[in-house]
Amino acid sequence: MKSLTVTPFIRDSFENYQKSACGITLDIGRQRINQEELISLIDFVKEKKMIESFNEMRKGKIVNASEHRSALHTSLRDPSPDAPHAAEVHQTLEAFCKFAEDVRNWKWRGCSGGRITDVINIGIGGSDMGPKCVYNALRPNKPEIKLHFLASADGVIFDRITSVLDPFSTLIVISSKSFKTQETRANTMEILDWLKKAGIPEKDFKHHVVVVSAKPDAAEQFGLPKENFFPIWDWVGGRFSVWGAIGLPVAIALGADTFKRFLAGAHAMDQHASIAPLQNNLPALMAMFAYWNSEKLDVSSYCFLPYDERLRVMVDWLQQLEMES
Q1: What's the pTM value of the predicted model, to 2 decimals?
Q2: Shared domain check, 113 and 249
């Protein structure tokens, strides 16, 4: 009977198997690869110019061949004035962060003059998963403003959310790149009807509804003023969009300062990924081991096991990121 050869863990032959950057430590000690194979893998990645390709993406190179688009989510969190689309990104960031603080400080109120206590986010895919993941990870135990998420066109979920809310103290954030998604359109019509049935006339929807979209006239289509509109762009995939105006509900619930610190942390990792040597580069190492496990060890799947309830939604978000990417 042929014996099965098991590749030893890298920690058996390599002392420096814990890598740290940006407050995160990556333990690669249980990867089934020896030191010689790791060196060979790093040389292979150098030949493929992975870091150079990442930096070209950050500069705006077309990486979505099917739609001939860039993938510039890194620009959404880049404070540099030289980043692609920097002017419009920073202008939008300041606009929706100011709006978020106005809601938090009671400057933006409902049509009856009362403060906003709840926000309903209507969106699906990246317009739902990203904000929901960040909110669940970072929200305090007793948030001053609570977030609720409507994604699928499920009447039970709709009723469970709206039945415990006061429409006069609720803000609706409708997020859709094109407004072609049936679930988002259905939930939008239902929520506007909910406001109307509560006695809020359409002329006062401007106190309770804002729109995040790539369609410049999206707010006007709902009879809302331009200041109720925050743009997103087709050069950012929905699954990466939480770093822009799709993150507005998060900024409202957690505060603009917390949201900007969230962006700063992501940008710090972008910088690390751009310049760190491959042997110490956390994102590059994770990519390399994903390739190695799949191609060399025939491992066709992997799992994400959060040992903290606050990260439970991250499983769904990562699944979407992996499957759509």
Answers
A1: 0.92
A2: yes
